[in-house]
Amino acid sequence: MTLIKSISGIRGTIGGQTGDNLTPVDAVKFASAYGMWLKDYTKKQKLTVVIGRDARISGPMIHNLVVNTLIGLGIDVIDLGLSTTPTVEVAVPLEKADGGIILTASHNPKQWNALKLLNEKGEFLSGAEGAKILNIAENEAFDFSDVDNLGEITINDAYMDIHIDEVLNLPLVDVDAVKAAKFKVVVDGVNSSGGIIIPKLLEQMGVEAVKLYCEPNGHFPHNPEPLKEHLGDICKLVVEENADLGIVVDPDVDRLAFISEDGEMFGEEYTLVAVADYVLLKTPGNTVSNMSSSRALRDVTNTHNGTYEASAVGEVNVVELMKKNNAVIGGEGNGGIIYPELHYGRDSLVGVALFLTHLANKKMKVSELRASYPEYFMSKNKIELTPQIDVDGILTAMEAKYKDEQISTIDGVKIDFAENWVHLRKSNTEPIIRIYTEAKTQAAADELAVRIMNEMKAIAGL
Fold it and tell me: What is the C-alpha to C-alpha distance for residues 292 and 272, in angstroms, rounded to an integer?
C-alpha cells in the first residue's frame, strides 16, 4: 500500500495504516493543509473552493471527507459532484473561486484515489506551492472555524454541460463540418465520468455514439490506463460496428486515445500530434510537450514553421513552458491535450472536438490520417521500486555511462541518440522507475529498452 506526495498531488491506496495510505485521516489532513495554505496564499477572509470527483468506488467517501473538512475551515464549497478533471479546471475561473480540488487518481487502478490541487486559475499548483502544503500537513497546525463561521455548500451539477458548451464555442471547433461527416464512434468511458460527458459531447456534434463501459459505477472493466494492451474490447467493437473510430478516456477524462476504423491503435502519442497539426494549420505558432513524448510533435511543428520545446514531465511543467514560449497547443504524449484558448489543463473534450473537426476537414479515414504523420515507435516500461533500490544512484551511473551522448537531466536522465532516445525517471504517481524509448521501428525501441533495463538492473544488483 502506498501514499505518494508529489507535484501531481496527494495520491494513495485506500485502506491500511495512516501515513502509508490514503486513509480518511490522511484525506482530512491534506485537505486541511490545502485550506490553510489557501488562506495564507490569498490573504482573504472568505474563500470558495470548487470540488469534483471521478466515479471510482472510494469517491463518495473521500469527497465527503474533503468537502466537510473545508467547511470546517470556514471555506465555502461549490460541489460539482461527479465530474472530470478538466471540468473542474474550467469551473474554477468561471465561478471566480479561489481554488479547486479534483478527487481522482487519474489512470491508476480502482484501489487508488487522490487529491489534485488547483489555484485560482484552475491550474495545478507549482512544486514550491505543493511543498508548502506538505509542510503544513506535517506540522498539522490547523485552525478550524467556530460554529458561526463554518463554510457553506452549493451544489452545482451543471458544469459538465457548461464545459461542453465552452468547447463547442471555440472558433476552431466546427460542429457543422463534423455533423456533415456523419461519424459513428465507439466510446470506452472505463465506467467513470467520461462515460457521461464524452457521449454528450458527441451527441451535440451530431456524432452517433456506441457506448462501451459508460456506466459510471467505478468498477473499471480493464486497467484504466489507455494503452493498447488494455483496449482489446473497443478495438474489436470498432470493427464489428463498422465505426469510423473509437475514443478512449481515463477515469478523470484528461487522457485521450483513438482507435482507427480498422481496430488498430492510432497511438496515444499521436493524439497530440494530430490535434497540433490542425491547430497549427489554423493558428501558426509554437508547441510544447514533455521529455517522454514522441519526436513526431517536433517534426509536425517544424513543417508549420513553429518552434518545439520539451519540458520536464508533469502537467504543471508543460504549462509553465507553454506560457513562456507562447505555445498555441501542447500537452503530453500520454494523450493529454492542453489548448490554452480554453484553459491550461489536459482536456479530452477539447481533444475530441478538435480531432473530429480535423478529420472532417481532411475527409480521410483515421488510419490514413495516422499514416500521414512521421513514423516513430515507443516502448514504455517500468521497474518496480523496493526500499533497497537507490534511484538517484542508478540515474547518476547511467548518465556517466552515456556521457558522450546528448544528455538532459532536467527530469531524470534523457539520452538522445542519433536515431532514437531513452528517458529514465522516477514516476510522480507510482512507486516505479519509468523507462521510455523511441525509435524508427518497434523492434529497435524494444531492443533499446531491454538493453537499458538490463544495464540499470545490473547497476542496482537486481
Answer: 13
Place of cell 490553510: 36
User: How much is the pLDDT for 2?
Assistant: 66
Q: Which of 83, 106, 289, 311 is catalytic?
A: 106
Domain-ending residue, one of 102, 127, 157: 157
Task: Answer with the one of 371, 395, 419 that is the final residue of a domain.
Answer: 371
Q: Which residue type is seen at 67? A: V
Residue 292 known to be catalytic: no
250 and 173 both lie in a single domain: yes
Residue 61 CA, chain-centre distance (Å), reads 23
Check the CA dihedral 86-87-88-92 and report its sign: positive
Q: Looking at this protein, which amino acid is placed at residue 439?
A: A
pLDDT at 390: 86
For the beta sheet containing 256-259, the strands, ordered from the edge strand earlier in sequence to the opposite edge, are: 208-212, 184-188, 245-249, 256-259
Burial of residue 50, with CB atoms counted within 10 A of its CB: 0-12 exposed, 13-18 middle, 19 or more buried: buried
pLDDT > 90: percent of the chain:
86
Same domain, 117 and 200: no
Whether residues 152 and 167 share a domain: the answer is no
106 and 193 part of one domain? no
Residue 7 pLDDT: 61
Question: How many structural domains are present in the chain?
Answer: 3
**Rounded mean pLDDT of 117-125?**
96
Q: What is the reported pTM?
A: 0.92
Give the Cα separation of 275 and 254 in Å (integer). 15
